[in-house]
Structure formats: C-alpha cells, structure tokens
Records
---
Amino acid sequence: MSQPDSANMEEGSLPFPQPREVRPLAPFGWLARGLSDLKHCLIPSLFYGFCFAGMGLLVTFVFEHAYEYTMAVTSGFLLLGPFLAMGLYELSRRRELGQPCTLTPTLTVWRRNAGNIGIFAVVLGIVFLIWARASLIVFALFYTTEVPNLSGFLKQVLSIENLEFLVVYFSVGLIFAIIAFAVSVVSIPLMLDRNQDAISSMLASVAVIFRNPLPMILWACLIVALTIVGFLTFHLGLVVLMPLLGHATWHAYRDLVEPLSAPG
C-alpha cells in the first residue's frame, strides 16, 4: 500500500520524516525488489541505463585526456546519479500504484517539486566543486614539477612508493563521498513522493544513516561495487546495473522512512 498522496498537502503541513530501523542485510532485499521493477518496466528503465552508460563514456574520455580530473568527474557521476535516477524512482512509484510503466511521464517528474530539487542540486553541486578543487590540490602537492604522462601516472599509482599519495587522495575523496551519500540517501524520493522540502529531506537522510549504520555501510558498498562493475564491463553493465540501483533506492526509501499517516 502506497503512502497517502502528499501532493495535495501544503509543504508546511508535512511532518518531519521519521527514520525506521531495518535489518542489516536489508539492502539485498532492496536489490531484489529493484530487479522486479526493472523486469516489469524494462524498456523505460533501460533508457535511463543507456543515459548512465553515456555518462560513463564521458568519464573514460576525460581519463584519456586529463586523468588528473578523473576522480572528480567520477565523483560527479555518483553525485549526478540521484538526479538521473528520478525517472527510475517514478517508474517504481507508478508500478507501486498500479499505473503503467511509461517513459514520458517520468522525463519531467522533477517539476513536481522543482524548487526544492533545485536547492538540493545546488548543495550537491557545491560539494562536487569543492571536491574537484581538493582533487587538483592533492595532485599539485604530490607532483610539484609536472604531472606525469598517462603511462607514467598509472605506473606510479600502482607503485608502493606512492602509497602516501593514494592514502591522502582516497581519504579526501572518501570524506566528500560520505557527505554526498549522507544527504542523498532518501532525499529525492522524499521530495518527489511527499513534496517534502529540501532541508528536511537532507536531514532525514542523515537521520536514516545514524539510525541504520550497518545497513547503510552495506548499501554504500553495494552501490560502489556495482558501479565499478559497470565501468569494468566497458560501460555495458551500467545499462542494467544503474537502473537496478535506481529502483532499489526507491524501495530503500520505503523501508527507511515511516509512511505518512492518513489524515484523520
């Protein structure tokens, strides 16, 4: 049973989303339900999958020509993912309501709460820009003369002699990844489903993580692992794996946030 339609409720009357506790292995259940949505809404889901694959090709192009920006662009891929996945959330919501899984209504679903989604986009955009700058600063600190060519860079990265660079680089990246993940776990589904404001949605996402640290760590690891698999399969895996994660995220939202109480 879906939550009451909050589109008819004024934003100010919405209560703060209450996090729920889930089992440690709950993310595997989200993936299973996401797979069911993917099979049921195959064509529109794959459309979004090909969009993700196109983004993956962009990352590869950047790596070939300016690899010092690759981690920043890859992070941007992960940051932009929730926005591109809005159509996938809508497909899962429509299936939940017994509505047809058609692509067209999902393309402009952002209009449902454009203002707050825009605020959220600005917040993630700022995180991305700061990380991109931090990434370049780390490169500059360790390569004070000139950045090596591509083959030299790969050789140095794989060398144990550059362990310090790798530790610093990935530690800084991890900080920004945690911030982005913390504010986005259920933010966009909340804004789309309930017309929730951006601030409450981001705070609710953080609350969800504090309420469920182990499931959220597992969920983050699954997202990263499946994304890496997608890249390692020459982006073909992204066509299926990204829609799977998008649909699964909707079911994560359903499990992690208390449903709205029906008006009395």
Note: The chain has a mean pLDDT of 83.
---
Amino acid sequence: MPLESIRALVKSDLEATDQFISHQLQSDIPLIDELVRYILQCGGKRIRPLIVLLSARAFNHNDEHHIQLAAAIELMHTATLLHDDVVDNSTLRRGRKTAHMIWGNEASVLVGDFLYSRAFQLVVRVNNPVVLNIFADTTNLIAEGEVMQLLNCRNPNTTEKNYFDVIERKTAKLFEIASQLGPAISTPEKKFLEMMQKYGMHLGVAYQLIDDALDYRASSEETGKNIGNDLSEGKPTLPLIYALHHASDAEKKLIHDAIQNCSSTHLEKIIDIIESTKAIEYTAQAAKHHAQQAISVLNHVPESPYRKALRELTEFVVERNY
C-alpha cells in the first residue's frame, strides 16, 4: 500500500504533529530559526512519528500526549541526521544540500543538540515515568550505536554480527521507542509494551537493510542521496559484507581497498560485483525476514484499522524504492 494511504488514517494527527513541531522550534536566535526551517522544508517520510500515532490509536489513546511524543521522536531523528551528516561528511540529504554544507559543522552539531534537548523537554512534559524510562534507556544505546558505526568505518573485516549490532542500536532503537510509546501512554499491560518493542526492533532493522540495499541500486533522484554514498564514507554495509565473502580474490581486493580508502572510484565495478554475487537479493531477503517477524508480533495486538495500517507500513518499508 502507498505510504499516503496509510498516513490518511491519522491525517489530522500528523497535521497536528507538524504544527506542534513548528511551534516548538521557534527561536529568538536567527541561526537556529534559519537552519531548522531549512531542515523542516526538506520534508521526509515521517515514518517514526507515524508509528507513534498509529500505535497510540491502536491502543485507544484519547488525549494529546501522542502528538507531543510523535513530535519528540521526529526531533530526535532530525538531530541524529544533522550529527550523522557531519560525521559522514555527507553532501546530499533528501535531494538537497546537507545543513553542514551550508552553515558549517559547528552550527549543524549545535542545532542538533538544540533539537535533542527540545525533544527531551517534550518528553518530560508528558510526565509519564514509563515514557521517561523508555527514552532514558534507549537514547544511550543509540549513542553507542553511533560510536560503534564509527569504529566499523574503513574496516573491511567487519562481520555481519558487527553490522547488525550497529543497526539494532543506531536505527532500530528509535523505531523501538516510537512503537512502545503508544501502549506506554494507553494501557497498563506490560505485555503490549514488550510486544511493540519487538515490533519496532524488527521494523527498524528491516528499514535499515532496505536503505543499505537502495544505496547500490536506486538513483539519487529516488533516494535523495548520492548512489554509493556508504562506500565513499567507508561503511561496510550488508551488501558489501556479503559480496566480499562471495567474490573472486581480485574482486575482494577491489572492495577491500575501496572500504579502507573511502573510495568510490571503482563504484560501477563494485556495483557489478554486488549484482553478480546477489548481495542485494540477500539483503532484501534479510529485510523481509525481519518484516515478517514484525508482522507476527502485530497478530497479538487487538484488531483495528490502526493495527492493519501498522502491518501495511511494515510491507511498505520492505517494498519501497526511496
């Protein structure tokens, strides 16, 4: 199902979330105001806040706390993107120049910190100890994931286990938080909190796997990022790790050197190796496995149009081309 059809189910909630974000990010400091406005205009799929809203409605949440928390999740996600782009020296995000290319590294990092702190202000205002514990425990793991990814960079000997350890912390943890917030503010039953945590983890892993596959298959017009971006940043993602273990000795050396030197000089040859070793198919299959795991968890959630939409969102994540 197209993403817009899923979003339509919580259209008013999404609009309220966007308005809330715009209101919360107003600042008297011109640089913050300018940079934040640029980021918001870049758009994005808003998958994480969408998960918060759908999961809250799936558990019959009635007040406005889900709007605040959806906004907090989006601010945290945006903060991680600002920091990531500086660390990775990325030039393109969502089809536009990255913020640090326009305003510099210092401004991007500091505005990222501003977004993080504003997100935590919103979380505290909800005044829910379960929600506070979720954020406190998992945001620390996200930071660990960032550091682990940095250690894996330029390392052609990175294993699949190392790779999954990183994405479970770096990407999937934010999906976990988003999925848990609905039951956290809607029901006292811990079993639903645990179920939705599993759902979010598997969905987040599937999402990152498809992102990493698209980096070698989709065009920059589709993804809004430069093709082969991960290679030029020295990131050994699953398509490269798999290709390294199934290529000829000469091909292995080519990939090995490219990762070590953060070089996309031989990108076309490396894409050919990825294709010939069926590394993309392997990565996509791994994503589908995690998507199925996520869907199986949803079978234990009360039936509703929102549960159906969460299932369709999971299918969208593995079928998308952007």
Note: The longest strand covers residues 92-93.
---
Amino acid sequence: MINYLSPEVLLFAYQQGLFPMAESRDAKQIQWIQPKKRGIFPIGEFHISKSLRRALLKNDYSIKINSNFPKVIEKCADRNETWINSDIYDCYCKLHKDGFAHSVEVWKDSQLIGGVYGVAIGAAFFGESMFSEVSNGSKIALAYLHDRLLKTGFLLFDTQFLTEHLASLGAIEITQDEYLTKLEKSLNKNAKFVDTNYSVDVETIAHRSTQTS
C-alpha cells in the first residue's frame, strides 16, 4: 500500500473508497482506511434539533466558504489526539488550491468559531473533519454544508465513521458494498460545490427537519 500522499494519489484513493489517516500529529506514515461500515448523511435528511434551530435563527454569525481553508484544518488538528499530520495538512491545502477541497466556516466578530472541510469529486462530498469553539459551532457548519450539497446536486455526503454526534444530526451507517454502489453512482455525475446559482436561506435550513429534542 502506498504510504505517501500527493493530490493525485488522494483523489484516486477517494474514488476507490479509501481515505488517509496518520496515527498521530508526528507520525511519518499514512494509513489507508476502508471501513466495513461507512457513515453517511443521506442527502435531504439532515436533522435539526430545536436547540440547533434556535442557534441558526439567532443569526449572530456569518458563513463563509473557502475564505481560510488552512486555518480550518489547523483548528481541526488542534486537539490532544489527531490523525492530521504535516503531510495530510500539506496535501489537502494543495487539493484546495486545485479546487477539490473546500471548507464551510462559521465566523463571529472576525473570529473563526466553527468549521468543516472535505473533498468534492463528481457528485460526492467526502467530509474529513470539523471543529467547534462555541456551542453548536460545528453543527451550524454542517447544516450549511448539507444545504449546499442538497441544492447543488450532490448525491453522496460521506462522513467516514458514524459517531453519536453525527447520528444525532441524521447520519446513518451502511455496508461497504452499499457505500461503493453509492460512490460509483456519485462519481458518474457532476455537481458544483461552488455554484454561483446557490443561495442561502437560513429559514429553510432551520425548519427543514426539526426534531423534538
């Protein structure tokens, strides 16, 4: 298995259902992961809790796309244990410059308080990591990311693994075979992450699917 990264290698790996992780921030080698169970957000089924709806409608933040992609990765890696080493950081920054990697950022008073980044190929978006420095920061970013994917024609929103946090927002777990079928279909369709026809409507996002919690 290849143990180094380049934009070309990374794009090829995603199309085979693989993604890279390092054992730690200082690790030199890359591991290629292909889980038997895969986490995804079904497009159009993102769950908005009442507390998240209130946070969205408070609208005391601003949403930006790709305004500071490297900073988003830095904040995602700023934790005691991380799988983001220097090679991963450099490679995703190169993918961003090439137009494949994107960030959705939550800003308040000139401070980056939440965000998520990932890679778009065809009509598939591969979510990589997220961070939050305030309550609901990453959830707001995910809500806006899902809305963008829904409105711009994406078919697959990959989360890699299923966590309680993601499950509370509507993520589910599927088998590897199911994932590869969805992946192939998504790669055979084009979607534009940065689409000039896309417009944001926070009311629609906040009320799309509201839970009782």
Note: Residues 35-207 form a domain with the Aminopeptidase fold (CATH 3.40.630.70).
---
Amino acid sequence: MPVPMDLINTLADLYPETRDARALWERAGGRGREVESNPNARDLWQRLWRQSSQGASVTPEALLKAALADNENNAVLKGALLTVPKIQQAPVITQAETPQGRRPVELAALLSSLFSAAELRIFLYHLPGGRELDNALPGAVTPLSELSHEASKLLIKRGHLGDGLFKALLGERPGRAADIEAVKRRLVP
C-alpha cells in the first residue's frame, strides 16, 4: 500500500508528539512500545503507517477509526478510511481443499496477518519451547508466508495448538481479538 502523504501530513498535524501517536496507536489496539520515539512527526507517521500496512498489530482501518473517534469531522481521515482495504478474515478451508487439513493453513493465515516475519520469530521464541521452535524454522530471509506456514506446522506437530497459544496471541495483539477468537473456535476442539 503506498504511503498517502496527505494522510501522513494530517496525522502529523493532529498527533505531532510521539506520546500522542503512542496513545492513538494503543487505542487502535497496539502496544505503546511499538511506537518508536521520533521528533519529526511526519517521519514518525510515515513509519507507523507502513507498519500498519505491513501486518503490525494495528491495521490501517483500526488506526483510522481511532483517529476519527478523536476528529470525527476530518475529511482526510474519512476519505482514507473509505479507500483503505478492509482486513479479510482467513477463509474457512475444508479438509478436502488441502491434504494436510485446514489447521496449518488457517493458523498460517492468522500468523501472517498478525506479525511481520521478525515479529513472528520473536513471538515464537517466547513461547514455551521457543528456542527449539526457533531452531526448527527456516532461515532468516524466508518470506513471511513460508515462515508462517512452517511455524504453524511446527506449532501443531509439537502440541502448541491450544488455549496457551491463543492467549499468547491475544496478549500480543489485543486489537485483533475477534480474528484470533474466530480462528481458535475453528481450530481448537
């Protein structure tokens, strides 16, 4: 998704300080620590917008909705919300559609939508047995789609597909609770 400079300028004007940006990011479902300090508001917002567009804990839609809650009459925010792609929930895949079953495919889709490749590796490392999971993953330059698929197969094979995994996911991405719970209902008996 290209960086819309009119939106970046608007966000920089509305939330010029890092603490303001951090508060908005948290209201949109992210964690404050994900917002790095940056004295240049436009640089800060350009980075945050790219993060949200590339699978961070805050989606572009959630970020815009949180900003609109503060600035309900802002035409730039309204226009951006109309044009931002909506996050699509992973499709329900039947056993017949994949020989390995739907579980690795659905879990991989969820992981890809929640994390960047680096964030996924960090998340997995902090799970019980995370060092072993990390050692079993493919190399550092592996694309996110392949990494999330391999991670989902490992998580299932090693018995991690349960309440503990989904609690950890909710702890990392509370703003995505509905998506996480939906996948949990489909995958965990």
Note: The chain has two domains: 5-83, 95-187.
